[in-house]
């Protein structure tokens, strides 16, 4: 009778840690592409890989050669196709490595209550402006970025470097104003620029009522470590976009929670 080698089933602490880290990495990658066009691309690449192994097993030499050439440059193809998702993943890793440590120091020295009060002072003018624009059906797109890249935004924006205030945000998005057509970029405690032209999302599964403002707000969160508030000009509905996904018709209480968490 053949004996079973039980050494194959022995695990140590590092094996468990290895599995947990791989699971965490896969989960983070899934969160990055979930609900975006990248998910469909990933499924397409997986189907091509599966087809390659099938035709190779069936000894179909022509298809094996064609798909084999694709497999040989597979890593390069993945980097090219998923460059935005890879960039967002690296930004996420870097942000968690630095800001989470700083946040812990803030809470240690100032206390959690003081930090929450400081955050509320920062977001209150934004929420008040959104309330006013919702009532008047004033279309708006407000983008929050962790790291303001001048090369990306200043080429298509009007530089402001202004203190955040309710009246300033409202005046920017007035329908007859020269800066209303585009997005406002906020970083830190300042409005960095206005009237910004942003790239549109390639996602084809969005609701049909979404116009250019919504598609631009979703698109900027796909390509950058950013979040966006979109106020609909037609309905006054407020939406919140993050990592290429959007929450529609959110309340002001929910908006405050989201801004406290992300901004």
From TrEMBL:
Domain DAC: residue ranges: 83-252
GO biological processes: cAMP biosynthetic process
Transmembrane regions: 12-30, 36-55, 62-82
Gene Ontology terms, MF aspect: adenylate cyclase activity; ATP binding; diadenylate cyclase activity
InterPro entries found in the cross-reference section: C-di-AMP_synthase, CdaA, CdaA_N, DisA, DNA_integrity_DisA_N_sf, DNA_integrity_scan_DisA_N
Pfam families recorded: CdaA_N, DAC
Catalytic activity as recorded in UniProt: 2 ATP = 3',3'-c-di-AMP + 2 diphosphate
Signal peptide from the UniProt entry: none
Enzyme class per UniProt: transferase
E.C. no: 2.7.7.85
UniProt keyword terms in alphabetical order: ATP-binding, Cell membrane, Membrane, Nucleotide-binding, Nucleotidyltransferase, Transferase, Transmembrane, Transmembrane helix
Subunit and interaction comment: Probably a homodimer.
PANTHER family named among the record's database cross-references: DIADENYLATE CYCLASE
Task of the protein: Catalyzes the condensation of 2 ATP molecules into cyclic di-AMP (c-di-AMP), a second messenger used to regulate differing processes in different bacteria.
UniProt family annotation: Belongs to the adenylate cyclase family. DacA/CdaA subfamily.
HAMAP family: DacA
Protein name from the UniProt record: Diadenylate cyclase
